[in-house]
Amino acid sequence: MMLYEFLLLYFCWYFPCLILTDRFFFSSYVTEIAANTAFHKQLIPVLTGTWRICHARFEDIVGSPTPVSPRDFTSMGNALLITSKANVVSELSAISARPDFVVKNSGSRMLVGAHAGGPTLSPGDKIALVGSSSVGCQDAVAGSLTIMDGNYVDFPRSGVYANAGSYTLCFAEATSPTRFRRQHSTLTLHPPSLSSLTPVGASPSYIVAGAPAVLRAFGGSIKSGDFFAILPSATIGCEHAATSRLQQSRQSRSGDGSIVLDISSSTSTAICESPPCNDMKVCVSLSESSLSFVDQGLSLHVRGPDVTGTVTQMRNQPNNRFTLLVPSGAWVSVVVPSSDDKGSCTGAASNATHRAGPVTCGAGKSTCVVNEWDVTPSLLLDEAPPFERSVCMAPADSGGDSDTDFVAQPGAILAQSSSYRMRPQNNLLESPDGSSTARAIRYDSGHVYTVFNGIPSVRVVKEDGSEGNTLISSSASVSLKEPWGLAISEDFFFVSDTSENNIHQFARVNARQASFRKTWSNVCKSYGSPQSIDIHEGSIFAVCNKNMLIKIPAGADDSTVLGSLQEQEVFDLAVGTGSRNPHLYFTTRGSKTGLFRVPDLGANLGTKEWLGSQNANDINFDVLTRDEHQAHGVTVHKMTGHVFVVRVQYRSPYSMSVMKFDPNAGSWTTTPTAAPVTAVGDYLKSGRPHGNQWRMVYLALKEEGDEASLLWLSQVEAMAETSSSIAVVTMLP
Questions:
Q1: Is 143 helix (H, G, I), strand (E, B) or coil?
Q2: What is d(CA 299, CA 312) in angstroms, rounded to the nearest whole number?
Q3: Which of 534, 439, 438 is nearest to 489 (CA)?
Q4: Nearest to residue 262, comparing CAs of 246, 276, 278?
Q5: Which fold has domain 424-716?
Q6: Is 491 left (phi over 0), alpha (psi -120 to 50) or beta?
Q7: Nearest CA among 201, 341, 363 for reference residue 264
Q8: What's the start-to-end Cα distance of the chain, in Å?
Q9: Rg, the chain, Cα only
Q10: If you ran DSSP here, which 8-state letter would residue 617 be given?
Q11: How far apart are CA 445 and CA 437, in angstroms?
Q12: 128 in Cβ contact with 170 (< 8 Å)
């Protein structure tokens, strides 16, 4: 027979008596309870203090003709005393989220409120939750949470509090961390309104920062119009949810009861600014206020991009090719995104024509380039622009045999309007005799300028392809023999002549007229003749005899030889400033082709850097020249300092692309930041069965503030039986 079989409060000698029945068992620390604690089913309004247990035998009470009286009880003396202490904790409330609504296993940060006028809370004190129907504080130690400075606790995202329901709070001082006593406060843990958030048409494991994604949300209580927020896992509660909220664009449920949430490329970049972002938390709210968002206890993994180098394509270009940097062993596929699900990779696994892999990078290389990937007209060219194609990647261990192995990557392959594309048949940029070789191309003030050396001249045409004419040719004032380089300043045109070892200056009458001003003779001295030239703050820089650098200072009447740029043939030269000190950039051909940089505009030729190599001075790893490519024309954005260089493959399939380098991104030789900004199909290939398709490719840049909206390419066909031709192509940077 158990003790404590009837409930009565009685004051015995010295200590008041706490008289208990109904088989009460002290699961709280046996000698300490909290005032106003629920004993089993009844609430005992005891006062704080020390209490003695009094006992009445069950058989002496049951059936007694008279009411139970104190005389029926026997004091147990001081053998068993219970101290009744005041409640310490008044409530728990969520921080930086809806305070009164907590989801199970959400990892919420909770503020621990102390009773007014009662004992204070101290860092190191403990709380725990026990089921409201449980007795005392049984199992409280297993769910113990430490109160931190600021009177808060962090609930775990898994484990102890995995079940929804009503809980009662238990409390223990830091000095006695296992001596829990039951409190009067309660807390309800709710099931989440969002049961899952899964990418659609792609790998369910993660999404990529900077790429679009489509997420399908399941949950019985979510509805159209709810607000979502995807936040870093370290976020306190749902802090900043209001400013980073997402609202699904589709306002009706799918047939499976889900809600679809569209994430744009800009949004995915914002929610994960420094990938990888493991276990991003998901918050949901009925309103836009941050204090109405509730942590759902779910996580979403966001990774950085695996594939770089998505590019811009032109319309009506057969045999388009582009370059992608892909992890070793991975699968990569180009797919047509649906209008509704732009982050979907549906069709990636079955796309035999435009699926590559597993990519083989060679020993010791974690990434490598998928060079000049053939994109047939059926994929890109059978519809009018603008349109886009998605690039999806599947990791090496996935097999790449299911659409759900693939994840959309940032960027896209875009088709742009060809309104500015100029073809040879317009006769505006062709050489005067139809057979001369083009040597240079420049853009300035809405006009494109091209140098020809067959019938020596400089041609000009408006960028829309209209109103072309000869800007400079031989005259009584000047004799052009074999012009090569062209530089343009605010007031002048400068033309180098390789036959005469001269550089000529022409005053700009307007964009389409020029008058001869002066000639610098014998500028290369004994080092040959000038070819590529550029100008900076009135000073002229030129390459002589394919590798010697000279300078004509502003206002000077003679040139200065600065020294040898490289033992290889220098193809092109450009001056760049941007946010760095002035640099001189040049490209070379031959066995050590590539892009180089010289600081201080050639003043210190002993510190040349080979740009674009992943391993310093290792041609086999150069992003510009690997796989039998060569670097051609180079130009520099005058405001940003970004460097653009043409990359050409001479052998079949005769590919060409433009790479963009950021000089502010760190070491050029060890961590290159280079991506193709476009790939250009062979305009000149049609009807020409053989030959070197890109003998020389020069580059010009149209600048618009900090942006470079157009790149202009001069393409030269060097087949003996055909004339040289020029095409100017519009591209996005």
A1: helix
A2: 34
A3: 534
A4: 246
A5: Neuraminidase (2.120.10)
A6: alpha
A7: 341
A8: 89
A9: 39
A10: T
A11: 24
A12: yes
Q: What is the mean pLDDT of the segment spanning 241-254?
A: 63
pLDDT surpasses 90 at 221: no
More confident residue, 669 or 460: 460
Q: Which residues contact 56 (CB under 8 A, 6 or more apart)?
A: 5, 6, 8, 19, 21, 68, 72, 73, 74
Cα distance between residue 140 and residue 144, in whole Å: 6
> Tokens at residue 133, please?
């129907």
Which part of the chain has CATH 2.20.130?
A: 312-416
Average pLDDT over residues 723-733: 49
**Which CATH code, of 2.60.200, 2.20.130, 3.30.2420, 2.60.120, is assigned to 312-416?**
2.20.130
pLDDT(22) > 50: no
Return d(Cα 587, Cα 598) in angstroms, integer. 11
Phi, psi of 519 (to 5 degrees): -130, 135
Q: Domain 196-303, what architecture?
A: Sandwich (2.60)
Handedness of CA 133, 137, 141, 143 (dihedral sign): positive
Q: Are strands 355-356 and 331-335 parallel, antiparallel or unpaired?
A: antiparallel
User: Cα–Cα distance between 409 and 324 in angstroms, integer?
Assistant: 11
Stretch 77-85: mean pLDDT: 65
**E strands in 618-673:** 629-636, 643-649, 656-661
Instruction: Kindly state the DSSP code that residue 489 receives in the 8-state scheme.
Output: -
Average pLDDT over residues 447-472: 84
Distance CA 576, CA 565 (A): 16
Instruction: Quote the pLDDT of residue 465.
Output: 67
Please say whether the structural domain 89-190 has been given the CATH code 2.60.40: yes
Cα dist from 163 to 126, 191, 310, whole Å: 21, 8, 46
Q: Answer whether 726's CB lies under 8 Å from 715's CB.
A: yes
The tokens of 466 are what? 């209209």
Query: What residues does 583 pair with on adjacent strands?
Result: 576, 599
**What was the pLDDT predicted at 310?**
61
* Residues 6+ positions from 486 with CB-CB distance below 8 Å: 440, 441, 442, 449, 451, 458, 493, 494, 495, 496, 533
If you write DSSP's letter for every residue of 335-370 in order, what string do you get? E---SS-TT--TTTTT-STTEE-SPP--TT-SEEEE
E strand or H helix that includes residue 270: helix 265-271
Digit-coded pLDDT (tens) for 706-719: 777 667 776 655 44
Provide the phi-psi class of 625: left if phi over 0, else alpha when psi is between -120 and 50, else beta. Answer: alpha
Question: Is the pTM higher than 0.70?
Answer: no
Whether the Cβ atoms of residue 200 and residue 214 lie closer than 8 Å to each other: yes
User: Within the chain, which residue ranges are assigned CATH 2.60.40?
Assistant: 89-190, 196-303
